[in-house]
Amino acid sequence: MARTTRTPRVDFVIVSNRLPIDAKPTADGEDQWVTSPGGLVAALQPVMAGREAAWVGWPGRADTELAPFSLDKTHYVPVSMSEQELAEHYEGMSNATIWPLYHDVIVPPEFHREWWDSYTRVNQRFAEAAASVAEQDGFVWVQDYQLQLVPQMLRGLRPDLRIGYFHHIPFPPYELFAQLPWRQEILHGLLGADVVGFQRVADASNMRQAVRRNFGYSMNKPIVRVPVDARLPRDPHAPPVTASKTREVRVDAFPISLDQAAIVEMATTDSVIARSREIREELGNPNTIFLGVDRLDYTKGISHRLKAFGELLEEGTLQASDAVFVQLASPSRERVESYRELRDDIELQVGRINGDFGHLDRPAIVYLHQNMSREEMMALYLACDVMVVTPLRDGMNLVAKEFVSARTDNKGVLVLSEFTGAADELDQALMVNPHDIDGMKEAFVAAAHMPVAEATRRMAELRATVEEHDVRRWATGFLDAVTPHTPKPRR
Ligand code: ADQ
């Protein structure tokens, strides 16, 4: 890879909390750059491929100033964060306030004014970094809930720019959003963009409703008319704004997807197919392999699904001699208290179920708290019979789409929570409410015994849906909405 330290101004800038690569020091003291995991990176990488662009983000190490650098055509602009800012902006405001509030308050959100101050300060730093690399009239695409103030801050610094914002997680109903002491600041921040994109139609509608309730701006779905001189604070009881000078902000749904062709390529290599057979053998060739793949996060519903599986073993509907549950849980947000507690709870639950129902040579649940290579993930998708994706709430869930894309053999059954964005599109999955343990048990049994012809028909339809709505369509749809002249993703 060609590496330079020159950062030119470019007309396409991505801004996300994390850079898509992390600095890892090697034994000789040099930095080595490795891809950081997660759904956002998986979705944006194909959009960036082959394009001259800048990516602004935190490089994964606190209290470190790193100079901008370039690898191939991407210019990386590291934004520094102190240890305290990491604790307050990222672990605090982003992941202990906004994340739980926006995911149906599954755990109680905490509200701390110092966290908010830090969030504001860090957002300003990101806006300044983006402003410094964007070309005149360029396009800046801000990503996700850690940076909701950046669009308006950037508009203040660089009114010439076209600004897009994409929200990867749910946007909550107003009754929940209204708890946020800084709800007006967040809405005002988002409305600095020309297009605010969400995963689901319901998310976009929730944001428009929040704007109506707080600011009374006039709108013609999906367009919101924002006064060019909009300032805070605004009295929510003031009459609707009728100022003649307004700018149009599109608040709309753009469901994210993945690069199906790339997944198919990987999932059809001889080594991945051979590895999938090996995995089945290593698991003792059971009749049914259930698979869960998630970041270890309380939104993903891991304990609900293990409870359903455990009850099926207890009742004797399934036997550990012919059914196994493989649960991958990638380490996540390990310094946030609720995540540490979740890990303890899940590991206790796995231990109990294995203790009660496992055999010497065969546990009932194979649990791995590890990151896997993409190849190993593909082999697991191919090896399983039933893919279990049962979040309590999820913006989209790319694992469901990855599984479907990998199954070129049209085999395997997807059990999917209706509370994922993916459920809006993947209607041939077996849909479940993860809070309904009996309903989930029925779905597990139906999936394990589904006639081959029905499973094949469902999978073929699921695959066709993901093929049609792949990540390029997502990116093109968003970029077209921002401006017909924005450069398109290249093949
Ligand atoms: P996430 O909450 O991270 O993403 P998801 O969409 O499922 O959730 O993406 C997870 C990614 O991590 C997938 O690409 C998956 O393959 C990978 N992954 C998971 N476990 C792994 C493991 N053990 N080893 C290696 N890789 C693993 C957020 C939102 C989602 C939204 C995405 C994209 O929360 O709702 O779908 O952004 O917008």
From TrEMBL:
InterPro entries, A to Z:
Glyco_trans_20
Whether Transferase counts among this entry's keywords is: yes
Enzyme Commission number, as recorded: 2.4.1.15
Q: Record's family?
A: Belongs to the glycosyltransferase 20 family.
Q: Which GO terms describe its molecular function?
A: alpha,alpha-trehalose-phosphate synthase (UDP-forming) activity
User: This chain belongs to which protein, by name?
Assistant: Trehalose 6-phosphate synthase
Which superkingdom? Answer: Bacteria
Q: Which EC main class describes this enzyme?
A: transferase
- Record keywords, A-Z: Glycosyltransferase, Transferase
> Which Gene Ontology BP annotations are present?
trehalose biosynthetic process
At the highest ranks, the source species' classification is: Bacteria, Bacillati, Actinomycetota, Actinomycetes, Micrococcales
